[in-house]
Amino acid sequence: MIKAGDDLTLHRRELMSLIAALSLAAVAGPSAFAADAKGAWGARNARDLLVSGQAWDEFCDTLKTAAKVVDRFGNDIDDHDRAEWYRFLTRCMRWGFERFVENSDAARPLLMPFPWRVTINVTTPDQDHYFFDYFDTAKDYVIAGNRGTTPYFVIAVLTQMRPTDFATRNWAAAGIDGLKEYDQAIEKTTHFLSSDQMTFAPNGDFEIQVSRHKKQGNWLQLDPDSTWILVRAVHHERAKEISPTFKISPAKPVAPSRATPEQMTAALVETGQLVLGYANLLRLWWQDDLGQRLNRLRFSKSLYLTNGGVNDREFAFGAWKKSRDEALVFQFTPPEADYWILQMCNIWQENLDNYEEGRGRLNKFMAKAELDGSILAVFADQDPGMGGNWIDSGGWTKGIMGLRFIRTKGAPEVKSYLVPLKELRRKGRKLLTPDNAIASGETTE
To answer: Which end of the chain has a smaller Cβ tally under 10 Å, C or N?
Structure first.
């Protein structure tokens, strides 16, 4: 009975829940009504959660929890960082909707490119990324395409920690603690197939069998718990290359189907956990790991591979911090490698906004090497005029950085120096003494 002062929204929700349960009972009989009308939801039902609006409410509550993670950074961030934080969350939402809502038809799967400007875990701008989530690991698929003229690509199969009943759990109520059971940001590569391992037709066409069962020719292995596929196409000089093409389809035709309440409930949960997971990952990386050893790079297989990496590269992560009148200088000698890139990102692991003008990074094909083959890179708001390679810091004062080598043999020692920009202009390389060097470039498992 409704009383004065009651929350009418709550009563409407209860009424819709009852109507949904009665509708289900009319179709499935008395036993279905008894199973789905236990107490206040009892055994939660994905259909009822969506029809009642509860799934949407919990999705929005999860987003609110994700947004508040920024408050844990305290005085480490300024207003510009906060603006980029909320922009980052909208980009994660966009990626989640592309993955879990738009690309969820088993009859029409797509290897979709990452949405524009979506970058996670120091995503290089010199790679194209394509992804596909909704597949049934009991079925076989075929990826067909043409390799183009891009030198190298790799296709990875990933798995994530996700309970089988994830769609009906109240993750909004669990909050950050729920990530211990279900975290979209923690993913492990279980299998991968590179273009080096494949056979191609003379014109560059290829076909890959995607299956849990061994196949002849190009085979990408699935496991029962595989959750998604990620393609990385590595460009050397993008403007001079033809990108590869990829098309995935079921090995046996599947009839198209309409969207269902159950699918949408699952998609909202997955998108919410993706946003929350990456929001928390950014905090963990800055406050508990990288931010504790500023201006240092560390090669770590375990950190890279637990964030969707593939075992064809060496990747060093680090955190950087400098004032606008300082310069951060790097020295290293690249090992033999097909490709390498030094990336400077904001605190949210995103490429700096000047990337589209070709700044904020240095790669193998942009760099000017020293006579001994080493690389000198100066990260500063202005070019100090000492030669080497200037990387424009564009007014940013803190962030995450990465140094990756693809198809390489080992990782190099890296020296870094944090020095006054004015002094660097005056003294040049004489300022880069062993006493000023910051120990960097160590390798851990």
So the answer is: N
CA gap 223, 159 in Å, rounded: 9
pLDDT digits (tens, 9 = 90+) for 141-174: 999 999 999 999 999 999 988 899 999 999 999 9
Helix, strand, coil percentages for the chain (3-state, nearest 5): 35, 30, 35
Residue 94: what pLDDT? 95
Query: What's the pLDDT at 39?
Result: 28
- Our CA dihedral for 351, 357, 362, 366, rounded to 10 degrees, sits at 150
Sequence ranges of the chain with CATH classification 2.60.120.1600: 293-444
Closest CA to 343 of 326, 333, 358: 358
CATH number of 293-444: 2.60.120.1600
In this prediction, residue 441 carries a pLDDT of 65
Return the DSSP state at 33.
H
| Intervals of the chain under pLDDT 50 | 1-42
Residue 37 CA, distance from chain mean position: 39
Which residues are CB-contacts of 272 (< 8 A; sequence separation ≥ 6)?
58, 59, 62, 63, 66, 96, 171, 172
Spatial CA neighbour of 241 closest among 147, 178, 174: 147
